[in-house]
Design a protein that fits this description.
20% strand, binds iron/sulfur cluster, ten-stranded mixed sheet, 8 helices, 10 strands
């Protein structure tokens, strides 16, 4: 996805239905279908987001409606309490989402065939039924994806997604439950024996080439990364002290 904007021509709504988390209406949106724009970290991947229907997602920050697409993720919130790095993407979607064209799941599956896909650029994939993702991803080249709902979601997501964790306790519990994990930590915190540092962080390898964040589909170590995104802000560092004790 371009850092400057989202082309509606290369974007589409591919599923609409009730949120698994709340029952309120949500939608699945693909952007960058032609792979011509590039996210610096992921490289050229089709980006798929879970968004509320009919509302700018950024208006929901810190409100109960954010649970529709993000569940109980601890990174949600408003202002200084918000740790999630995807605020700008949510705002961009809000500017364009009414003009996204609609594709059926079959059409979307064909559009994605042979391409690399990032699942959950915004929103938690577990807000959408597993079978929808299973249908969408069946012919893709590779994917990355993450969920904070690993304690409660459909267990089949273990095969597609990484469990997002922010504490050692969360890491250990998710591993016991059979997940590979993606742990965000402060730079001074240790790397556990079952983890490997994200190759983008250590040597600049983009997700499209790395392909490690695809759940148990790959029998590899879990991933650990230092806190990033809006990390330059003093407010984030303050929140992190609470979130990563
Ligand atoms: S481990 Fe690989 S796929 Fe996962 S975030 Fe890092 S570069 Fe991307």
């Amino acid at each position: 996805m371009s850092e400057r904007g989202i082309s509606t021509r290369r974007s589409a709504v591919v599923w609409r239905g009730p949120s698994v988390f709340t029952g309120n209406p949500v939608q699945v949106v693909m952007t960058g279908i032609d792979l011509k724009s590039v996210n610096e970290k992921t490289g050229p991947m089709v980006q798929i987001s879970v968004l509320p229907q009919g509302r700018n997602p950024s208006l929901d920050f810190g409100t109960p409606r954010e649970h529709d697409v993000c569940g109980d993720c601890a990174l949600t919130g408003r202002g200084a309490k918000r740790v999630c790095y995807a605020a700008y993407l949510a705002w961009l979607h809000g500017q364009h989402m009414e003009r996204y064209r609609a594709l059926s799941l079959i059409e979307a599956r064909i559009a994605l065939a042979g391409k690399p896909v990032r699942v959950g650029s915004y929103g938690d994939p577990a807000a959408v039924p597993f079978d929808v993702w299973n249908e969408l991803l069946v012919r893709v080249d590779n994917w990355t994806g993450y969920t904070h709902a690993w304690r409660t979601c459909d267990e089949r997501f273990r095969h597609l997604l990484m469990a997002s964790v922010e504490t050692t306790e969360g890491y250990l519990e998710a591993r016991r439950r059979g997940w590979r994990t993606f742990r965000m930590k402060l730079p001074s915190f240790a790397v556990h024996p079952g983890e490997v540092r994200c190759p983008y962080e250590t040597c600049g390898v983009q997700c499209v080439k790395c392909r490690l964040c695809c759940g148990t589909e790959r029998p590899a170590k879990s991933i650990v990364v230092n806190a990033h995104g809006v990390g330059a802000g003093g407010s984030l560092r303050f929140v992190q002290k609470e979130l990563f004790p």
